Amino acid sequence: MSALTPSLKRLLRAALISCMLPSVLFTAACETNSTLTTIQQIPKLMDAFNVDGLAVTVVAGKEILVSDGFGTTQDGAPFTSSTSCGLYSATKVLASLTYANLARDGKIDLDKPIGEYLADAPDEWKTIPFFRLLNHTSGIPMIVNNPRFGDLMADPGANNTDIYEIVRDDPLDFEPGEHSRYQQSGYAVGEVILSQSLETGFETLVERYIIEPAGMVDTKHSASIDTSQPPLILSAGGYQTTVEDMARMFLALNSAVIISPDVWTELLLKEPYVVDGYSLGNIIENRKGVLTLGHRGGGARANFRYAPDTQLGVMICTDDVTNNSLPISLANMLIDEVSTGMTPKTPLLVALANYESMSGKEIVSAYKSAALPESEFELSDTEALLNEIGYTLLFDDRSGDAIEVFSLNTELFPGSPNTFDSLGEALLVSGDLASALDNYRKVLEIDPDNENALRMIEEIQARSQ
User: Fold this and answer.
1) CB 133 within 8 A of CB 190
2) Do 393 and 431 form a contact (C-beta atoms < 8 A)?
3) Exposed (0-12), middle (13-18) or buried (19+): which is 303, by Cβ within 10 Å?
4) CA pair distance 268, 171, nearest whole angstrom
5) What percentage of the chain carries pLDDT values higher than 70?
6) Of 437, 348, 363, which Cα lies nearest the Cα of 394?
7) How far is 82 from 439, CA to CA, in rounded Å?
8) Predicted local distance difference test score (pLDDT) of residue 30
């Protein structure tokens, strides 16, 4: 892995704060690092994204740049660095690190077929390699939408073997390796293999390989806190943590106490482990030339990102369900600033924060001002944001304002069938059938097989007769 860049070193020297540690053990909460302009913007970002509170940790190398809370929890308590946060699906990062350790130690062979681990596996499972359980390409049926899963969740004595017994009787959803479909069943089967092959549960392995070596004190699965919850699919979700503990984990990872970042990264980037930008419990992203690993969960309530080349870790969490993906935008800003030493662009939503009280024309004008060359705003998510704003207005019975916003989106993204589809829907709601028909036909010019456009054209033509 490459060394820290000169710009990053300069920023780290400027960012030196009282919580700089001689070892990987984190012994006290850190204060906000005011030298990071992104941190200074958090109150403004929280206001624009309508988020009451969150916690942030940023670690680079052996230094904690930030570990702090902002605002309040949904219960009205101050959000601090020691406030408990749910990891939700970001728990899969813990699973990834655990499996990487097991693979390194020769205790699990990720390329070995399931049939060699589970003697009673169905015939069509027997040749599926273990790694497909962790990158959602196994084809094993989804469990969480199975009616019987609700019964298991209500039974404190249920375990992953019960899930295995359910899904093994159903046919595969698709041929292994043919598709990638996000589901949790593979993680349940993986835990069954761990318990049979190693005679050890997943929670014990996480303690052994991650929590204890890193000196983490506040990270545990919710099933161990509330014993009425059955210990189901612990590796796919349900862990609770704090940003203080995440700082400890980043420090331990950077010091190779958990595992060498090189070894972890090499494993994650191995073919055919990476499918559709996903590998062994990690979303693989290239953030403006910076490779990042990690996962998000709980409707973006938790977002974990790690850049192995610069040993930069960012963890953001909130208990605000309607967070408008602020933890994702904020993590991107912090990665950009720490990686380059430059002030990052501000999310476009900040410029349009008051859109619900603005007319469609005012929203269009605000966007055009934000899009000027000298603007401070990040425009990469423009299409999705304008589409979301348009639908918010449409659902609020403001079809005229929605049409203004959707029309702007078609001008900005003339090659996107979705922009014309959205405009067509708003025009249809407004009663302008002819214009709606024109827009759905435009969808078909771009995407001739678009089923929704075909259906809507047929419906409009029937109504026009």
Assistant:
1) yes
2) no
3) buried
4) 29
5) 93
6) 363
7) 51
8) 45
Residues 167-213: tens digit of each pLDDT: 998 999 999 999 999 889 999 999 999 999 999 999 999 999 999 99
Residue 22's pLDDT is what?
31
Closest to 46 measured CA to CA, from 54, 36, 37, 38: 54
pTM (2 d.p.): 0.85
Q: Cα separation of 142 and 133, whole Å?
A: 12
Q: At 426, which amino acid appears?
A: A
CB atoms within 10 A of CB 174: 14
- In three-state secondary structure terms, 240 is strand
The DSSP secondary-structure symbol of 323 reads -
Which pair of structure tokens corresponds to residue 107? 């205790």
- DSSP symbol at 76: S
Give the per-residue pLDDT at 34.
Answer: 54
For helices 451-464 and 433-446, the axis angle rounded to 10 degrees is: 150
Q: Is the peptide bond before 272 cis (omega within 30 degrees of 0)?
A: yes
Residue 244, classified by CB atoms within 10 Å of its CB into exposed (0-12), middle (13-18) or buried (19+), is buried
User: Which of the residues in the chain have pLDDT under 70?
Assistant: 1-34
Among residues 232, 233, 204, the alpha carbon closest in space to that of 220 is found at 204
Q: What is the CA radius of gyration of the chain?
A: 24
Beta pairing, strands 63-71 & 346-347: unpaired
Edge to edge, what strands does the sheet with 220-221 contain? 85-86, 239-241, 220-221
CA distance 239 to 13: 34
Backbone angles phi, psi at 202, to 5 degrees: -60, -45
Q: What is the bridge-based pairing of β-strands 377-378 and 346-347?
A: parallel
pLDDT at 426: 97
For the stretch 304-333, pLDDT in tens is 999 999 999 999 999 999 999 999 999 999
> How would you classify the pairing of strands 302-307 and 312-317?
antiparallel
> Taking phi first (over 0 means left), then psi (-120 to 50 degrees means alpha), and beta for anything else, what does residue 324 get?
left
Helix, strand, coil percent content, the chain, rounded in steps of 5: 45, 15, 40
Q: What are phi and psi of 377, to 5 degrees?
A: -100, 145
Sign of the torsion formed by the C-alpha atoms of 391, 396, 397 and 403? negative
Q: 290-297 and 285-287: which strand pairing?
A: antiparallel
Q: Is 49 exposed, middle or buried (0-12, 13-18, 19+ CB in 10 A)?
A: buried
Burial of 211 (0-12, 13-18, 19+ CB in 10 A): buried
| Three-class DSSP category at 312 | strand
